[in-house]
Amino acid sequence: MYYFNFRDLIILHKKRVKVSVLQVIHIAIIKQGETIVKKIIQNSKSLYLYTYNLPVRFIYINIIVMLLLACSSKKSIRSSQPIDVPIAREAVLATEQKEKAKIIQVVKIDQITSPVVDDTTFVNLYDYSRDFIYKMKYATSDNFLKTKVYDCEACYLRYQTVIALLKAQEKFQKKGFRIVLYDCYRPLDIQKKMWQMMPNPNYVADPKKGSIHNRGGAVDISLADLNGNELDMGTSFDYFGPEAAQDYDALPEEVLKNRKLLRNTMIRSGFRIFESEWWHYNLKNARRESISNFQWKCD
Fold first, then answer.
1. Among 90, 254, 277, 289, which one carries the catalytic annotation?
2. pTM of the model
3. Which of 45, 121, 194, 286 could disulfide-link to 117, CB 3.0 to 4.6 Å?
4. In the annotation, is 170 catalytic?
5. What is the pLDDT of residues 123-153, one digit of tens each?
């Protein structure tokens, strides 16, 4: 079976070609940022397009009328995946970009609770493991903004990101290392401040599109030995220069070895690299999740 579009039909018109019964025309309609493919099936007489005397626009009009009649009983469907409304501190509703930022309370407890929730639910990494080293840069003034924008060193991520990160941590620990956390989920309001300071998409995502950090699917990390001594990665976190790129190789052999260890282990654990930053890793398919803007406060 052959599939036709408008251009094909006009070519057929010029060449006197007969289109047989029950052939399908696929029309791609762009509507509200979404591609909807509708199948129009001819179920009666054959269609002839070879009348030279008819103007091309007449052919267009007839085709459009036919499509509208055939589509009149169809409804466009927009798929969406709901996110559970939070019922505890481990579960946080992802908000839309235009909504006012929600505030949640972070409560640290002695025991690890490890709640099992939906993959897309936001959870606190601290509830699942105490093996990570927290050096959340935006909870201090040691960042390119030169100001503290987080109330405390909390690492919120979607549950699916936490599971992948725990797998990576297990691999690192077997080799004598631990993950150092610099940044996890980032509220959209913070993303806007960063963009004002550094409006360069090579280093900071445009808040109009949103970052994977805003979706709870990205982490900024490094490595340390089991005693907490950080490995040399060649540059500091948030260094805006070519030396921070994943493929930059004019570095000491030890630095290249450390970066390779970090990169290869994270990739095997389900993450993707960010080319211009050795510390940034995105969970595969995390861009599918919605942007959020909730913020947290600590005791």
1. 277
2. 0.64
3. 121
4. no
5. 999 999 999 999 999 999 999 888 898 888 8
